[in-house]
């Protein structure tokens, strides 16, 4: 059998180690990842290997040559012009693949039994077999579900947290029949998971998943790179360590000199031609490459040192990586997680602090303390984006220096000279962070249209009208008053896609930031007549005569938010008799407890004044809670149903877009009015995108997120919603209380269970497996539907917290209560068993 070794990766997440080295050539215990893969193939009698190359191809060709030293026959296929993707590069060598062949990624360390996998493939008479494994956290991998016969049923490439439906993932190793390549066009960028496998599923080709036992680590980032080294030393994975002789878990190469006073604690590995000085301490987990010199009194704890490094006397290295040919001088300290790029020099008594990265061929002055990456900026979190943007604790996570770098990363993903809209709420912290974002954006040549303090619905309206490339809005987080939320908008005013988020994250983490010359630095302008433009758009979608002649009295609580500076101007135009509460701007956010007090006061005022309705506006003009003429609040699922009923009465046969967890009252009302319901993932971006792109949508959103009127703009807008409610009440000649009494009786309840991130994937897979015989939906989480009425249960992992939410829905209250108790117990039992298994494995 012939193997295709995909070795074209640049390994950008391993920088600075891969600045001058392709990822498959990065060493694990002093041998390249690709060498460990070649050893694995040879052990399973696969001796013909075709390596597909793209990034720095000569490094691999010069190392392996024809492969004879490694017991294989190597040939190479180089993608000279542009990368063809995982499947495209295999299609490119189709003429070499005339029989069953194996494809294996050059990015991972594994000891899978390939012989068993090949036998499985032949026994199943498969066209494609995916070698799978189970991992605790599947977010970075392709998730796969198979049926009881191991035939692939569904897969999802790199899911978001709430999309995880299994912990069984694709390892990037496949056994394929040559005829599957006929599905791929030549000379085009194609991917196995995104392009070929969906085509095979669509054409009902036999595609199977072989769940392999053994070790597998995708060396996708610097943390995983270190862990793979430690796992190899601890014999968690079977590797051939070349010429390194083994002496009681200490591997020492040829011609290496170790002073008798040196203290070596196993397991550790030392390469050839090394010199270990007197009094040196090498602790367990340390890996030393070839031709390394370590001075007297140095201490290395779990450090990974590449070839040709010089380490001075009394240096201290802890769980760090030191690249090829570096010079670490006397009494230098390199702390945990730091990475020193090849050929760098760290001066005497300098300190490289935790998680700092130094790019290749840099020099750190003697005595310097390096707290930030040497190129620019400081390290950050692994994932910047959460459910609806970038958020964090004010002045701890969300600092000016963080915002400058984030702005530069976003700007670097746009073309030079692009224009974007920037806006914020009225609070000082938002002003501070916005100015830092603007500085970062201007530094990479992006021009700013600054709307300053305004409600986010206005920013969404102005983004397409100003014909800009996108936008940023900064505000206090709607659900957490101590957090700041930064939302990124596309050219239509919708929150940016996951793909764009990944692009910004890539620029941020790889320090891939553009720098422009003085003439190209961005400019800033302040658009005129912003509120007038919004008002004009607003008015075109309302029957102003009806509202003006109605004489309705409403009470509005602005909860000290920025909409208090905008909505009164709009209401004046409508001729409304509006009583305003708490309209002054306040720097501190209103807590949830305070919001409840204000809502109670609003109900009392509505009753006392005999007003038609009351409204509390929150979330910078996005969300609202209604209060009926009797002073009773209408919110959550009740508000969703009420808005759907009113809008479908006004626009029968329209389409309603709601999140997956909304109650089935929406379907009841849609059937009543001849409408259609479209359910989306439980995040605001999915709601906005679906409301904008789907046919005949008259309303989107929910009582929890706010409501979208797609003809106005693509976002949630409490201000327009208030005016629309007034119009519909007048036209339909009903009160909120009367409309509420017409709503269907549906019981909808939920509870939440704490669940470790590592267990979420396994829990979702377990739920899918035990409900194979039932109808399940995987729009978001796992939703089980039951035969009677609109009975369903949804298990939904939280995207931002270690929680799992359980929703139950039915016309029968007892059914809801029973199912909630049952599934809560099921989830808790699974979590308990998983934690016990993890504890026993660790012990």
Summarize the topology.
Blueprint: E1 2-6, E2 27-28, E3 31-32, H1 33-43, E4 48-53, H2 57-64, E5 73-78, H3 85-91, E6 101-105, E7 108-110, H4 114-124, E8 128-134, E9 142-146, E10 152-157, E11 168-176, H5 192-202, E12 207-211, E13 216-218, H6 222-233, E14 246-247, E15 250-252, E16 257-258, E17 263-264, E18 268-270, E19 275-276, E20 281-282, E21 287-288, E22 293-294, E23 299-301, E24 304-305, E25 310-311, E26 316-318, E27 321-322, E28 327-328, E29 333-334, E30 339-340, E31 345-346, E32 351-352, E33 357-358, E34 363-364, E35 369-370, E36 390-393, H7 400-412, E37 419-424, H8 428-443, E38 447-453, H9 456-465, E39 470-476, E40 483-489, H10 498-509, E41 524-525, H11 530-540, H12 544-550, E42 553-557, H13 567-574, E43 577-581, H14 592-609, E44 613-618, E45 623-627, E46 633-634, H15 636-650, E47 655-659, H16 665-673, E48 676-680, H17 684-693, E49 697-702, E50 706-708, H18 718-732, H19 736-741, E51 747-754, H20 757-770, E52 775-777, E53 782-785, E54 792-797, E55 803-810, H21 813-842
Parallel strand pairs: 1-4, 1-6, 4-5, 8-12, 15-18, 16-19, 17-20, 18-21, 19-22, 20-23, 21-24, 22-25, 23-26, 24-27, 25-28, 26-29, 27-30, 28-31, 29-32, 30-33, 31-34, 32-35, 37-38, 37-39, 38-41, 42-43, 42-44, 47-48, 47-49
Antiparallel strand pairs: 2-3, 6-11, 7-13, 8-11, 9-10, 14-15, 36-40, 39-40, 44-45, 45-46, 49-50, 51-55, 52-53, 53-54, 54-55
What descriptive keywords fit this protein?
single chain; 843 residues; alpha/beta; Spore Coat Polysaccharide Biosynthesis Protein SpsA, Chain A; UDP N-Acetylglucosamine Acyltransferase, domain 1; Alpha-D-Glucose-1,6-Bisphosphate, Chain A, domain 3; eight-stranded mixed β-sheet; seven-stranded mixed β-sheet; 21 helices; 55 strands; disordered C terminus
